[in-house]
Amino acid sequence: MALKGIKVIELVGLAPAPFCGMLLSDFGATVTRIDKIAYNPLDVLKHGKRNIALNLKQTEGRNILRDLCMKSDVLIEPYRPGVMEKLGLGPDILLKDNPKLIYARLTGFGQKGALAQRAGHDINYLAISGVLSFLGRKNEKPTAPVNLLADFAGGGLLCAFGILAALLSRQNTGKGQIVDSSMVEGAAYVASFLNRSQTLPIWGKDRGDNLLDTGTYFYDTYETKDGKFMSVGCLEEPFFQIMLKTLGIEGKLTQFDDNEKGRKVLHDIFLTKTQDEWTQIFEKTDSCVFPVLNWAQASEYPHNKLRDTFTTSENPENSEKVVVPNPAPKLSETPASSSFLKQQKDEWENINEILKEIGYQDEKIRQLVKSNAILVSTKGKL
């Protein structure tokens, strides 16, 4: 696997940091997750990671983290600026301990600036970045696309990219560095195409009036007879003409027609058949018309099955069958493997494996558990 041999410490946080750790784990890194409590059922991205709960308010707990970082390549840290410094675990300390460490700081507003100490969530980061102003239909308020853009794309994904860039740089310089990953800046960067397209015909108008934001009737979704939907993305004239021919309305619409007229025509036609019927009709056409699949359907879609886009497995938490996406992109020589499929070790196996790698022996581990520097759900194995 591409990142085999890379050791990552992930300090527990909300979605962006666990996602960043998941990406590195899926591609082969050994990720050790440092929790604040002995058992945390809320982190659904923890699979495939080793776990230990440390009391960082205690000197002994902080010393364990320092020892782990001295033997690691990467630290993912999601706290507000200054928290780690107050604990004596800031980059000035940990990079002195280990000059090769990549110290990745993943926050909403970054390490400096007027908003650095403010709380926020995905919708707020999108608002400040300017990206939220792009999103929504005409004459409607801005609409956040769940929490995918700032938390995951601009946050966890770009932080992982920054970590990989820093690791590559370390090969040349021998030095680690700080990765200051701001979700505001990440979301803005992800939206570079929108920003740079303002002078082009495809963008630059008010929200909901542009080519790609439902401002055109031939780039939208339409309900089918069974209450499902089809996606229409016929931007180029050849694809548009194939769609018209397939729908049996060749010559009745142009891309310059009034949007309301075009929407009504397509709305009325798509309501005459079910999603499955339309899917079969458009299946062999090159027209950019595809079904809007719900999550349960997506794994059974023939193309996705052929590509192994998803995998079905037992949830390690409750043994129920669950469908999860496989890692992407696919690498020909060092393919990734879904961390969700990896066998989870119990907390005592994790504690012993993690700490013995840095030279801690049984008696010392028992003492650290008794003093609550290491937090466990049960002390029955002492």
Describe the structure.
The chain is an alpha/beta fold and 382 residues long. 37% of the residues lie in helices and 15% in strands. The chain contains 15 helices and 12 strands. The longest helix is centred in the middle third of the chain and has 26 residues, at 148-173. The two termini are 36 Å apart. The model has no long low-confidence stretch (mean pLDDT 94).
Low-confidence stretches: none
Structural Rg: 25 Å
The total count of strands amounts to: 12
Strand content: 5-15%
Largest sheet: 7 strands, mixed
Helix content: 25-40%
Supply the number of helical segments. 15
* SSE string, helices as H and strands as E: EHEEHEHHEHHEHHEEHHHEHHEEHHE
Biggest sheet: strand arrangement: 6-5-4-1-2-3-12
For the residues shown, what is the average pLDDT?
Answer: 94
Shape descriptor: elongated
Terminal Cα span: 36 Å
Please identify the structural class as seen in this structure: alpha/beta
